[in-house]
Protein backbone atom coordinates (compact mmCIF):
# COMPACT_ATOMS: atom_id res chain seq x y z
CA UNK A 1 0.00 0.00 0.00
CA UNK A 2 3.01 2.29 0.08
CA UNK A 3 3.35 4.38 -3.01
CA UNK A 4 5.67 7.29 -3.75
CA UNK A 5 3.81 10.39 -4.81
CA UNK A 6 4.69 13.76 -6.23
CA UNK A 7 4.56 16.91 -4.14
CA UNK A 8 1.03 17.87 -3.31
CA UNK A 9 -0.38 21.01 -4.88
CA UNK A 10 -0.45 24.09 -2.68
CA UNK A 11 -3.70 26.04 -2.81
CA UNK A 12 -4.70 29.38 -1.32
CA UNK A 13 -7.72 29.79 0.94
CA UNK A 14 -9.68 31.45 -1.87
CA UNK A 15 -8.92 28.57 -4.25
CA UNK A 16 -10.04 26.03 -1.65
CA UNK A 17 -13.24 28.01 -1.13
CA UNK A 18 -14.00 27.87 -4.88
CA UNK A 19 -13.30 24.13 -4.92
CA UNK A 20 -15.60 23.57 -1.92
CA UNK A 21 -18.36 25.46 -3.73
CA UNK A 22 -17.75 23.46 -6.91
CA UNK A 23 -17.74 20.16 -5.01
CA UNK A 24 -20.91 20.85 -3.03
CA UNK A 25 -23.21 19.25 -5.61
CA UNK A 26 -20.97 16.24 -6.33
CA UNK A 27 -21.92 12.72 -5.31
CA UNK A 28 -19.28 10.41 -3.80
CA UNK A 29 -17.47 8.44 -6.50
CA UNK A 30 -15.22 6.52 -4.10
CA UNK A 31 -16.46 4.55 -1.08
CA UNK A 32 -14.01 3.31 1.53
CA UNK A 33 -15.49 0.09 2.85
CA UNK A 34 -14.59 -2.62 5.35
CA UNK A 35 -11.36 -3.43 3.50
CA UNK A 36 -10.01 0.07 4.16
CA UNK A 37 -7.56 1.68 1.74
CA UNK A 38 -6.46 -1.05 -0.65
CA UNK A 39 -4.41 -0.84 -3.84
CA UNK A 40 -7.61 -1.19 -5.88
CA UNK A 41 -9.15 1.75 -4.02
CA UNK A 42 -6.02 3.84 -4.62
CA UNK A 43 -6.08 2.94 -8.33
CA UNK A 44 -9.77 3.89 -8.56
CA UNK A 45 -9.07 7.18 -6.78
CA UNK A 46 -6.19 7.99 -9.14
CA UNK A 47 -8.39 7.25 -12.16
CA UNK A 48 -11.23 9.40 -10.81
CA UNK A 49 -8.88 12.30 -10.06
CA UNK A 50 -7.37 12.05 -13.54
CA UNK A 51 -10.83 12.21 -15.10
CA UNK A 52 -12.47 14.78 -12.85
CA UNK A 53 -9.76 16.63 -10.84
CA UNK A 54 -12.19 17.09 -7.91
CA UNK A 55 -13.89 14.08 -6.32
CA UNK A 56 -15.98 13.33 -3.28
CA UNK A 57 -15.07 10.30 -1.16
CA UNK A 58 -17.25 8.67 1.50
CA UNK A 59 -16.07 6.57 4.41
CA UNK A 60 -18.46 3.65 4.93
CA UNK A 61 -19.72 2.77 8.39
CA UNK A 62 -17.78 -0.52 8.42
CA UNK A 63 -14.46 1.07 7.42
CA UNK A 64 -11.63 0.18 9.82
CA UNK A 65 -10.09 3.68 9.71
CA UNK A 66 -10.89 6.85 11.60
CA UNK A 67 -12.32 9.49 9.27
CA UNK A 68 -9.47 11.99 9.61
CA UNK A 69 -6.83 9.28 9.15
CA UNK A 70 -8.60 7.93 6.06
CA UNK A 71 -8.90 11.39 4.47
CA UNK A 72 -5.26 12.33 5.04
CA UNK A 73 -3.91 8.92 4.02
CA UNK A 74 -5.91 8.70 0.78
CA UNK A 75 -4.92 12.27 -0.11
CA UNK A 76 -1.26 11.40 0.47
CA UNK A 77 -1.39 8.14 -1.49
CA UNK A 78 -3.12 9.80 -4.45
CA UNK A 79 -0.95 12.95 -4.41
CA UNK A 80 -4.09 15.02 -3.96
CA UNK A 81 -5.00 17.94 -1.76
CA UNK A 82 -7.61 17.42 0.96
CA UNK A 83 -10.00 20.31 0.36
CA UNK A 84 -12.75 19.68 2.89
CA UNK A 85 -14.00 17.08 5.31
CA UNK A 86 -17.50 17.04 6.71
CA UNK A 87 -18.30 13.99 8.78
CA UNK A 88 -17.40 10.89 6.79
CA UNK A 89 -17.33 12.68 3.42
CA UNK A 90 -14.34 14.53 2.04
CA UNK A 91 -13.21 16.29 -1.13
CA UNK A 92 -9.93 15.58 -2.88
CA UNK A 93 -8.41 17.72 -5.63
CA UNK A 94 -5.52 17.03 -7.99
CA UNK A 95 -5.10 19.17 -11.11
CA UNK A 96 -4.72 17.40 -14.45
CA UNK A 97 -3.04 19.63 -17.05
CA UNK A 98 -3.84 17.05 -19.76
CA UNK A 99 -7.60 17.62 -19.53
CA UNK A 100 -9.16 19.87 -22.19
CA UNK A 101 -9.69 23.43 -20.97
CA UNK A 102 -13.48 23.07 -20.90
CA UNK A 103 -13.23 20.09 -18.51
CA UNK A 104 -10.72 21.64 -16.11
CA UNK A 105 -11.83 23.24 -12.88
CA UNK A 106 -10.99 26.97 -12.92
CA UNK A 107 -9.19 28.21 -9.84
Please render the helix and strand layout as text.
Elements: H1 13-23, E1 30-32, H2 39-52, E2 54-59, H3 67-77, E3 81-86, E4 89-93
Parallel strand pairs: 1-2
Antiparallel strand pairs: 2-4, 3-4
General description of the model:
With 107 residues, the chain is α+β, with helices and mostly antiparallel strands. 34% of the residues lie in helices and 19% in strands. A four-stranded mixed beta sheet has the order 1-2-4-3, with helices on both faces. β1, α2 and β2 form a beta-alpha-beta unit.
What keyword list fits this structure?
disordered N terminus, 4 strands, 34% helix, 107 residues, globular, alpha+beta
Q: Beta-strand level of the residues, as a percent range? A: 15-25%
Main β-sheet: number of strands, strand sense, barrel status? 4 strands, mixed
Write down how many β-strands occur, each being a DSSP E stretch of 2 or more residues: 4
Strand arrangement within the widest β-sheet reads 1-2-4-3
- Tell the overall outline: globular
| End-to-end gap | 31 Å
Which class of secondary structure composition applies to the elements? alpha+beta
Task: Give a summary of the structure in a few sentences.
This protein has three helices and four strands. It is of the alpha+beta class.
Amino acid sequence: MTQDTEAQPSLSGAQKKRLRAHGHHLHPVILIGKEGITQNLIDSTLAALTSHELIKVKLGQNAPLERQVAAVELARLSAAELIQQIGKVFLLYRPNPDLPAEKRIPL
